[in-house]
Structure formats: C-alpha cells, structure tokens
Design brief:
By secondary structure, the chain is an alpha+beta fold. It has 8 helices and 17 strands. Strands 7-6-12-9-10 form a 5-stranded mixed β-sheet, covered by helices on one side. Strand 9 and strand 10 form a beta hairpin. Helix 7 packs across helix 8. 19% of the residues are buried.
C-alpha cells in the first residue's frame, strides 16, 4: 500500500501543479481584459467649453522659436569672424560650444539662449560684451501635430495659419509657404463630417490650451484662422452624438450636424419616423447637465404637425420613445390578434 501511495503522489503533484497553472493563466486572461477604471459618478457630463477670446493669445504680435533636441543651430558673434560654431542639440538638451563647454538650451527660446551664451562667454573672460545671434538651420521640431478626427504632421517654418495647417493635414495643402484655404465642414482639404468645429491647441510655452470655434459662417472665418507655430499640437475631437431608443424604426447614434442645429423632427426623419407601436404623445428627451439628469416630455405628433415647438438637441441627448403595449401586441400578432380583440369588444357590447 505504501508503494502505491508513493507511486500516486507524483501524479497528484503534477495534477495540482497543472490546476495551479490553469488558475494562474485564467487570472492573467482576466487581467488582460481590464481596460482601465470606469468613470465615476462625480465625473461631469458635457463639461462647459470656454472659447479663448484674448487677442494677445490668439494673435500674438511675435513669438520666439523654442530650441529642442535635434535642432542644428549656427552661433555667431557680431564683428567676430573667429567664433562661428555650428552644433546640434544633444539628447540631454545640451550643446557643446568652444571656450565655454556644455550649455543646457532645450526648452529655451532663441533669445534666451543668446543671452545665456553671451553671459557664459563674459563669465569665462573671453568677450567683454558679445552680441550673440543664433540661427536654426535644421530642426525636427519645426512641425505642427494634428491628432483626433484629422491627423498628420505639417511642417511649420516660422508661422502658418490654422486653416492652412488643417488643409495640409487633410490632403489639400502643400508644403511650407503654401496658401491653401480650407472649407470648414467638408470638401477637399476640409474637416470630416465626424469632426467637431471646436478645436483645442496645446501650445508649447503656454500653461492653458487654446480653444477655437471654427463656426459655420464663412464671413467670420478670419476670426478663427489664428497663427500656428512650431511644436503646436492641434486636437480635432469627434462631434457629439444623439442616441435613439425605443419605438423608432431605426435605433442608434446620430452625429450632430455642424452647419445647422439638429432638431427632434430631423432626428425622427433620420430614424425613419416612429413605429406603429410608438407612444408618440409621451416621447422623452433625457439630457445630462453637469451631474444632473433632466427628462423633458414632448408630444412628437404635435411637433410634426407644427402645433408644438421643435426642440433643438444637444450632444449626449437620449431620445426615448415608449411602446404602447396594445399596439405592440397588435403589431406582433397581426390581423388575427386584431380580429380577436374586435370579437371580444363585440361580445362585451352585446352583453
């Protein structure tokens, strides 16, 4: 018996090891499916967007270029032909210059770097009052990055305009110096239909992002055509949607239109209208404002007939059309159910 136990013990160990390995693999699979924490109840819905209106931020009179890693710069000193080094900013953000050694320039403007080099030369006793100038001859940082519904990398030498950069990212623009006009809301070089017209620009050197509303009025487009500088990141978000639930012929999400307000009648038309079983006098618009949820009851039939105002919908609105149980039973049962209900009514009247 002891020999049998000794013979079975390795198999038991192998089975337990296999079971442990299986549980471990299952736990790994479960962990791999996790994609991050869900939004909490305190997360605001439809947070307000503040459009940037300060002209000093939108249209700065001048903006000095920032130095970054990989930039190739030429350093000159006025009336001195002996000091003309050309160096590239290293990965640690420094440059190696004759007479003064390593200097940290990553993140500095050209003007700040000129002052720093002049100060180092004076501290080393090499020059009394040097007038230093820096010229960027080659740079991987002279670009604007567009992400979101429209994406791409556009070279920016000096300054370009927002519409020009968007058109170049959309395939309608050329290289640096091109003057292409973008048609907002679609067309060649324009924004896709899923793109919002409220664009955010993260500008290097500014703490707060710039928010621009491109609008839909071509006569006012110049107000949004702001300058774009190297190292700007332009974020083109997806436009909001409206959700349809209940007794509509078509359910799902409908994107908001950028060139005109989206009303309840337009949504009903896009959904193919209400179904036969729909309770049109009790349609509900569910809207989230901050952390509050509001429910508005609307008579869809009166709206279609013009006897009630046509509500303008907002992003993340939920349009729910309840089902009339009697109509649903008739629809599911067909003519036989209708004849049965009619027979019951006739019998009830005769009695």
């Amino acid at each position: 018996m002891s020999k049998l136990r000794n013979a079975l013990q390795p198999s038991r160990l192998a089975a337990s090891s296999a079971a442990g390995l299986l549980l471990f693999l299952c736990s790994l699979t479960a962990s791999a499916q996790f994609s991050g924490p869900a939004l909490g109840m305190s997360t605001p819905v439809n947070p307000p967007v503040v459009i940037t209106t300060d002209p000093a931020i939108l249209f700065p009179p001048n903006r000095d270029a920032y130095l970054g890693r990989g930039d190739l710069i030429a350093v000159h000193i006025f009336e001195s032909l002996d000091y003309t080094p050309t160096v590239r900013v290293a990965e640690d953000g420094t440059i190696q210059l004759p007479l003064i050694g390593a200097i940290q320039v990553d993140g500095l403007t050209v003007h700040q770097a000129q002052q720093l080099i002049a100060q180092k030369l004076m501290s080393a006793g090499m020059y009394r009052d040097p007038q230093v100038s820096i010229q960027i001859t080659d740079s991987p940082n002279q670009i604007a990055t567009i992400v979101g519904e429209l994406h791409g990398i556009v070279p920016v030498i000096g300054e370009r305009r927002l519409y020009d950069v968007l058109a170049a990212a959309g395939g309608g623009g050329g290289g640096a110096g091109a003057t292409t006009t973008v048609v907002v809301g679609g067309g060649i070089g324009g924004l896709p239909s899923t793109a919002s017209h409220v664009i955010t620009i993260n500008r290097y050197g500014l703490k707060e992002p710039i928010t621009v509303d491109l609008g839909t009025d071509p006569s006012k487009s110049a107000l949004a055509d702001i300058p774009i500088f190297p190292r700007d990141t332009i974020i083109v978000p997806r436009v909001g949607v409206v959700y349809l639930l209940g007794a509509f012929k078509v359910q799902g999400a409908i994107p908001l239109q950028q060139n005109s307000p989206l009303t309840l009648m337009k949504v009903a038309a896009l959904a193919g209208g209400a179904g036969f079983e729909g309770q049109e006098n009790d349609l509900r618009i569910i809207r989230s404002v901050g952390l509050d949820r509001q429910v508005v009851h609307v008579d869809l039939k009166k709206v279609i007939q013009g006897r009630a105002p046509d509500p303008v919908l907002q992003a993340e609105d939920i349009i729910f059309l309840p089902t009339n149980q009697m109509k649903a039973a008739i629809k599911s049962g067909g003519i036989s159910t209708l004849l049965g209900i009619a027979s019951i009514l006739i019998l009830a009247i005769n009695q």
